[in-house]
Amino acid sequence: MSRLRDMLDAGEFVITGEVAPPKGADLASMHAAVDVLAPHCHALNVTDNQGASLHLSSLAASKAILDRGIEPIFQQTCRDRNRLALQSDLLAAWSLGLENVLMVTGDDPRAGDHPNAKGVFDLDSTQLAQVAVGLNEGHDMMGHPLKGGTGFYIGAAMFPEAEPWDVQLARTEQKMEAGVRFFQTQAIFDIAKLERAVEALRPLGAKLIAGVLVLKSPRVIDFINGHLAGLMVPDAIADRIRHAENPAEEAIALAREQVREIRQIADGVHIMPLGLEHAIGRILGEEG
Fold it and tell me: I need a labelling partner for 94 at 20 to 30 A (CA). Which of 74, 148, 206, 282 fits?
């Protein structure tokens, strides 16, 4: 059984981390990051060609992490595969022992390192969640029976700071109707908007894991503001990092403050360390 599902169902506060598969076949750097994060996290999200840039597949990386005794969250992006490939990879994931899956539609390929790649987008994340529910029920998306179904714990992304909020809330509710049971959010900068999202979704039974992005340098902020659609670092936070004597240390302090507030509001926290994995204990308040 999924430890993540069990803890969220029991009302326990969960901690998830994020690792990126390597751009290549050498897993050493990924395993090094995993070894630092795993003692502090209940599960690790394994990204799928994040930023529309080439990496080892999330499926292979998730299996490698599972083989080390760590619970992965297999991320599946609609951008790169049609409905046949998406279903095939989900069946493969289940056969390999992966139970948690996070459905995302995916970034525009033009933003990545292969800008001439053709985005597939045969399905979106809501439709893919419906497909996964069908696989759990023992049939494919055409209604044909399977020789052995799945039992995925289905998650998706959400954006508490997106405006207009009523549109974002409607999309999130559609994902829940499709079968999504937990959400990992985009980076949280406005705690009041996180509270708004939790108040709206918790009565519906949704579990919400709030994202904390460690803004380790002004360069990272510039990249986010210039290349990641729908995400913008507020000026006050950007200025705090830009004007700091040690931007990385300031980013760690900021993330720690955010985690402290999130613990009082959400069902968990999702740490995106961006190379500062060694600071996870400090960010979570486990070290002085």
Answer: 206
Q: What pLDDT does residue 116 have?
A: 94
Q: Is 106 left (phi over 0), alpha (psi -120 to 50) or beta?
A: left
Between the alpha carbon of residue 237 and those of residues 120, 157, 219, 264, the distances in Å are 36, 23, 14, 21
pLDDT of residue 225: 84
Instruction: Report DSSP state, residue 111.
Output: G
State the Cα–Cα distance between residues 21 and 51, nearest whole angstrom.
12
Q: What are phi and psi of 218, to 5 degrees?
A: -60, -30
Instruction: Yes or no: say if 124 and 175 are a contact pair by the CB < 8 Å rule.
Output: no
What are the per-10-residue average pLDDT scores of the chain (288 residues)?
94 97 96 96 96 95 97 97 98 98 92 92 97 98 97 97 93 97 95 96 95 93 80 90 94 96 98 92 86
Q: How far from each other are the two terminal CA atoms of the chain, in whole angstroms?
A: 34
The tokens describing 98, both together, are 């992966």
Residues listed for the chain: 288
Question: What is the maximum alpha-carbon separation in the chain?
Answer: 61
Q: pTM for this structure? A: 0.95
User: CB of 151 within 8 A of CB of 94?
Assistant: yes
